[in-house]
Amino acid sequence: MQTVPAVPSSARHPDPAWRGRVTYTVLALLVLWPMVVASEFKPFTLFDRQSIAATLNFLADFVPPAHSPEFLQLLLRETWQTVAIATAGLTLALLGAIPATLIVTERLSISRLGTGRMAFMPAAIRQAVRWLLVLLRSVPELVWALLFVRIIGLGPTAGVLAIALTYAGMLGKVYAEILESSERHASDTLLANGSSRLAALLYGALPESASELVSYTVYRWECAIRGSVVMGFVGAGGLGQRMDESMKMLAGSEVSAMLLVFVLLVAAADLVSKLLRKRLG
What is the pTM assigned to this prediction? Predict the structure, then answer.
């Protein structure tokens, strides 16, 4: 009597890990469902007859976009102010993020040379700066903008300061993580031979991580442009403040023109990032 060879479980089912995948999917749904309920997420309201009618009436004014000479001149001026707010805020953020990166990056620590462990005081300073970065990035730039609008009044200065504080925390954290994950032989050699932390960064760690650092910085500049638009709704100037006024007046053609400008700004930031990565690659 001929025996039939046993078929392994992996051959009976194309994915041998299907039980684990199904289990994790069910667990994820069980965790996410209470969050969906708590957030009162009801997407079906978008398809309500009244909601659809209101949406169509508003979108009907989007075409054609506003293109009068007076409006285009205003749009150009507000666009320039928005880019200026984002660029100035990011520049101030870099002035805080770069020194913080030098402090919190463990691979640039001189006190750990030889023993592999940092001294108490440098470790305490590094931890304090880490908590400062946590504090800065944990407060959204919109909240900072609301605070500065109350302190210094309406205008782009509030937006610049809000971006500077929040993005200093973000850039400092991510810069340190990028440098920590890069090749450390060059920087360790420089530090062991008496080099300063700044020289070890510029000639050791930075060449290995330049492309990734530049890419992330340009991405944050793109986010700063979007953030400056949002902060304009609370009086921080730029395109956001003008869009808020247009939406309140139900001027759909003006809103559509500004949305097109947003798309062009993000596309320009993406192009700049791509060109810089090619040059550094």
Answer: 0.76
